[in-house]
Write a structure and sequence with these properties.
binds (4S)-2,6-dioxohexahydropyrimidine-4-carboxylic acid, TIM Barrel, alpha/beta, Urease, subunit C, domain 1, five-stranded parallel beta sheet, nine-stranded mixed beta sheet
């Protein structure tokens, strides 16, 4: 099928493009990006007042299948991704069983292929069963299509195992996506430790729980020459550590979630368990630091940490609730409304954080509109205004603290391998 996306503002950071142009797609590939391309026999998409970008990549999602399909499955998660403007997602291995062997990784890829909406790339576990004691067979994971390793959801507490993991992953050029949390400091914690944890009477999680582990993992990266990617960075001190490591020339990158960029720990005062997330929502001092680091390039990409949960694990006492936010269907609008429209983040920068940022970290041959590339395209409508309504989510996880928030700037169309998979938030 030939598609001509006409008259939109094309933003393609990899090729330094930000101009009104047409984009022609054919047989699943980008054919041309230029002015006034002839429509020939192509289906024409009017992209006037829209922004045409390479397909967005979310390198950190939890799709829950196999094992917890009541929370999410690959089909519902793929739909949520497509509706949210993502053409590629990378799924974390805290499934049941964990993605610590080729069979599970192959199963996920096959399920995603059958669903056919989103490119789903599995992330293998660093350790067997994510138990933190023995390394997984990374060669096997790579051959089954895993693009990184992580025990996300849990840290690798044993320093010797993390050292070996970084060393072993390096042999396969795999980034190690680290969930940095010292469980001895965070245990039983419910929210960020600070003013509001005292006011609300909830046990706090100090920033040091995250920072101590990032410091350790940076040291281990120096020791091993491995590749460390810090997941869901959330504190000023953490950003400082990554900035220093990068200056030193270590192979260290990091991501931030939309919720850590736009919502503070004050929101926990509603005792709505949808505000419970790990790492916890931080205070404004940290949010400001994250925003500065985004602009500065210390933070390499935005990733949702999409963590769908069942109503029962959220409609309960705060201390009993599971941490996590269902993020795929609000990520783009939150960043557009809270950061891009108010002038805090440049739109070009935003596009790179969702495209070349994750593609470079993972070595993916995606994230650009270069002719010959797979025709993954995300079209944004910067003026569309909608209110967040989880009842309309494709995700089974309705757990969002942003319910009822009116946001301006949404994904308009998601095109995967030359095929329109979502339009105006609806799966086609
Ligand atoms: O809030 C979170 N939820 N943080 C994590 O690291 C894991 C995730 C989940 O799997 O629910």
């Amino acid at each position: 099928m030939r598609l001509l996306i006409k008259g939109g503002r094309v933003i393609d950071p990899a090729n330094g493009l930000n101009a009104l142009m047409d984009v022609l797609l054919d047989e699943g590939r980008i054919v041309a990006v230029n002015n006034d391309l002839p429509d020939d026999d192509a289906e024409v998409i009017d992209a006037k007042d829209k922004i045409v970008c390479p397909g967005f990549i979310d390198m950190h999602v939890h799709l829950r299948e196999p094992g917890q399909e009541y929370k999410e499955d690959i089909s519902s998660g793929s739909k949520a991704a497509a509706a949210g403007g993502f053409t590629t997602v990378c799924c974390m291995p805290n499934t049941e069983p964990a993605i610590d062997n080729a069979a599970v990784a192959s199963f996920i890829r096959e399920r995603a292929r059958k669903t056919g909406l989103t490119n789903v790339l599995p992330i293998g576990a660093i350790t067997q069963g994510r138990a933190g004691n023995e390394l997984s067979e990374m060669a096997e994971l790579v051959s089954a299509g895993c693009i990184a390793v992580s025990d996300d959801g849990s840290p690798v507490m044993r320093t010797d195992i993390m050292r070996n993991g970084l060393e072993y992953a390096k042999m396969f050029a795999l980034p190690v996506l680290a969930h940095c949390e010292d469980l001895n400091l965070s245990r039983d914690g419910q929210m960020h430790e600070g003013y509001y944890s005292i006011i609300y009477g909830l046990k706090g999680i100090p920033v040091e729980a995250e920072e101590v582990m990032i410091a350790r993992d940076i040291m281990l990266t120096r020791l091993t020459g491995g590749y460390l990617h810090v997941c869901h960075i959330s504190t000023r001190g953490a950003v400082d550590l990554v900035r220093k490591a990068k200056k030193e020339g270590l192979n260290v990158t990091c991501e931030v979630t939309p919720h850590h960029l736009v919502l503070s720990d004050e929101a926990v005062g509603t005792y709505d368990a949808n505000t419970k997330v790990n790492p916890p929502l931080r205070s404004w001092e940290h949010i400001e630091a994250l925003r500065e680091a985004l602009n500065e390039g210390v933070i390499d990409c935005i990733a949702t940490d999409h963590a769908p949960h069942h109503l029962e694990s959220k409609d309960c006492e705060y201390i009993l609730a599971s941490p996590g936010i269902s993020g795929l269907e609000t990520a783009v609008a939150l960043i557009m409304n809270e950061l891009v429209h108010p002038g805090i983040l440049d739109i070009e920068k935003m596009v790179s954080l969702f495209t070349t940022g994750p593609a470079d970290i993972l070595g993916l041959d995606r994230g650009t509109l270069s002719p010959g590339q797979v025709a993954d395209v995300t079209v944004l409508d910067p003026d569309m205004v909608k209110t967040v309504d989880p009842a309309k989510f494709y995700s089974k996880g309705k757990n969002t603290p942003f319910i009822g928030r009116e946001l301006k700037g949404w994904p308009y169309m998601t095109i995967r391998a030359g095929k329109i998979v979502a339009c105006a938030g609806k799966i086609v």
